[in-house]
Amino acid sequence: MKHMSFKTFKGGIHPGHFKRATEGKPTVPARPPATVVIPLAQHIGAPCEPLVAVGDEVKMGQKIGDSKGFVSAPVHSSVSGKVIQIGMCNHVLGRPVQAVYIESDGQDTWHEDIKPNPNYEELSDGELKKIIREAGIVGMGGATFPTHVKLSPPPDKKIEFVIVNAAECEPYLTSDHRAMLESPDDIVIGLKLVMKAVNAPKGYIGIEDNKPDAVEAMKKAAAGEANIEVHALHTKYPQGAEKQLINVFTGREVPSGGLPMDVSCVVQNVGTCIAVSEAVRLGRPLIERIVTITGSGINEPKNMRVRVGTMISEVIEQCGGFKENIRKMILGGPMMGLAQPSADLPVIKGTSGILCLTDAEVKIHEIKPCIKCAKCSDVCPVSIMPLFIGGAVEHGLYEKAEAFNAMDCIECGCCTYVCPAKRPLVQWIRMAKGDIAAKRRK
Amino acid sequence: MEVKLVVSSSPHLRTPESIQSVMSDVLLALFPAAIAGVIFFGYQALLTMVLCMLAAMVTEAVILRDKNILGDGSAAVTGLLLAMVLPPAPPWWLPVIGGVVAITIGKQVFGGIGNNIFNPALVARAILMVSWAAHMTGWLSPLDLTTAATPLPLAAKGVQTGFVSLFFGTVPGSIGETSAFALLLGAAWLFYKGHIDWRIPGGYLGTVFIMGVFLAGSGSLTAMVSAGLFHVLAGGVMLGALFMATDMVTSPVTARGKLIFGVGCGLITMLVRLYGIYPEGVTFAILLMNAVTPLIDSATLPRKFGEVTK
């Protein structure tokens, strides 16, 4: 196995890891909830229409929502029981979405169509993509892009490399780490199935070197695969950003405004690979995932296997509840996660972590003038100039922000992390991106 | 459960650094040279430093209507830097006027911290130099405090100064400029903290050295290299390259820009030293390069990741 000398990507930061609270504990299954709230929009793309009505009996894994749009993914019931309501629920992105409320009968009866497929290795690429779509699989790193769409590039874009994103570069999060220790074979099978679906000759698995046990486990699991290489990557945030991951493995840069397929690559999260394996081998749709519940604001930090649709408040309760001085609840990691006004919303396919921060860790900073220290530009992984973009947005100069490449920002947060003047750079850049995108749509 | 949760934009982690902590780091980095200045030039140097810093801090507090004269620490840094480039025993009103001028004309008229184009301490020094030339050239020998000439004009007359004295600072000069050793010690702290990188000091000192070798030295290779080394250690170049030119607000933000800036400073410094009427060119070199910094920045913007070349 040829060993590449691993360069790291340009820029990036070294925040603390904060993973010790959960990385050494085995993942535990959550107690199945009495009611689940399954949002019909858990992915990028067209929201689903409900396929069930109030009063319908549903089985676990039954498709309860679908869409005619190409960029979409169906949703399934994560329990067996009865549909009690079709209404609105809170969503991590802030706007309420339509959802199917199902009361569980406590039986967890799988739908009869869900059967293992012993001959899964004979499936064609087209058949694999159909299964992946029907299983409702979306990117589980958090972006929730429908996987079957990602695996259907136009015919002129040949895929050379499938890269498994096992970096898990966000502080606090350990769900992918645990998945690698607990289901390494599923990850390799999932990778191989994805490679088959896009006819890619080579697969890579990239793991940050702060997880040496995971590197070991994955190297062992992939040992027999001639065209799969496992590599330990220099731990630096955001090594798991897909453009940076591609750059480190292939030396290529995804072109500005382009996609990984433009440099013949496809990147998939560890959790997505496992979901692919379970869908293809066992016929199971995506109805549960590992969530890291952590932070000094939760009483019992741990990784849990949680059913999609479980209310976050329920998950919090199963982890001993919030501490007295809880001040912020973030869905995702501390660098790119979304702070929530309440725990009154369901776990969805992209919920990688629930991070609970206390008073001492939550500071509202006063914004000071830019002192041109350029630390933001030094750490920017895409070499744009956050200080200039931020300065433009501060004065409402959105065209200037666009000229300074605001649209290329990957919103990793490195710039904002290092700024001594505590300027909300990513927030400003996001405002500019929104304005620029809206103008372009006109 | 009725809990009040804060909702704010990502990222939710920040470095503990602040403008204040950066300024504290700079003050700490200036300490060795400041202490050296007091050891060499006595209580009057200390008084000059205190007067500069107080004048600067009070001026800023008054303009900003801040009850706390410590502020964000930037006025204290400006005050100390100004004192470091003053002669050791000026009349008390000189550092006071200098401090006031540095903060008002050098900084606040531009809009306060982050907005000034020129290094405030050097603006004050330039104004003091043209207004009170005699007071600004009252050089003293370290420790015995007798009137003496500084190494640069001495060299122009053919009188050499030993490298050991130049390195440790036992030569006449402004309060903080003489000891390369003390300055390098302090600068190491700034390098370690990531507040400065090699480009500006490297470009500046490298250019001074090369120009010294080829334009100020003659004869043997040893003589030429000595000339280069002399120009690096003598005068205010070490202080200028490590602490003045590297001032964040007034120097370029781009990597290539910093190098160009450093080289430009070195070039102008040496042109003034070798062909101009002033013995030292650091003040004007840095101020002139400050003026073209915005231009340098726009000309050296980095290639973004995934830049599609048309």
Architecture blueprint of SSEs:
The complex is a heterodimer of chains A (442) and B (310).
Chain A lengths: L27 E2 L5 E5 L9 E2 L6 E2 L4 E4 L8 E2 L4 E9 L7 E8 L20 H10 L12 H4 L10 E6 L8 H8 L1 H14 L4 E7 L3 H10 L6 E6 L8 H9 L14 E5 H13 L5 E7 L7 E6 L4 H7 L7 E6 L6 E3 L12 E6 L16 H5 L6 H9 L3 H6 L10 H5 L6 H17 L1
Parallel strand pairs in A: 1-14, 9-10, 9-12, 10-11, 13-17
Antiparallel strand pairs in A: 2-8, 3-5, 4-7, 5-6, 7-8, 13-14, 15-16, 15-17
Chain B lengths: L18 H23 L1 H22 L9 H11 L8 H12 L15 H12 L19 H6 L6 H6 L11 H14 L5 H18 L4 H13 L3 H8 L10 H21 L6 H18 L11
Offer a few descriptive terms.
heterodimer, A: 442 residues, alpha/beta, Rossmann fold, 4-stranded antiparallel β-sheet, 13 helices, B: 310 residues, mainly alpha, Ammonium transporter fold, globular
Give the gist of this structure.
Chain A is α/β, with parallel strands linked by helices and 442 residues long.
Write up what this structure looks like:
The complex is a heterodimer of chains A (442) and B (310). Chain A has 13 helices and 17 strands. With 442 residues, chain A is of the alpha/beta class. In chain A, strands 1-14-13-17-15-16 form a 6-stranded mixed sheet, with helices on both faces. In chain A, strands 2-8-7-4 form a 4-stranded antiparallel sheet, with no helix packed on it. In chain A, strands 11-10-9-12 form a 4-stranded parallel sheet, sandwiched between helices. Chain A is globular, with a radius of gyration of 21 Å. Chain B has a single domain (19-295), classed as Ammonium transporter fold (Orthogonal Bundle). The radius of gyration of chain B is 20 Å and the shape is globular. The model of chain B has no long low-confidence stretch (mean pLDDT 95).
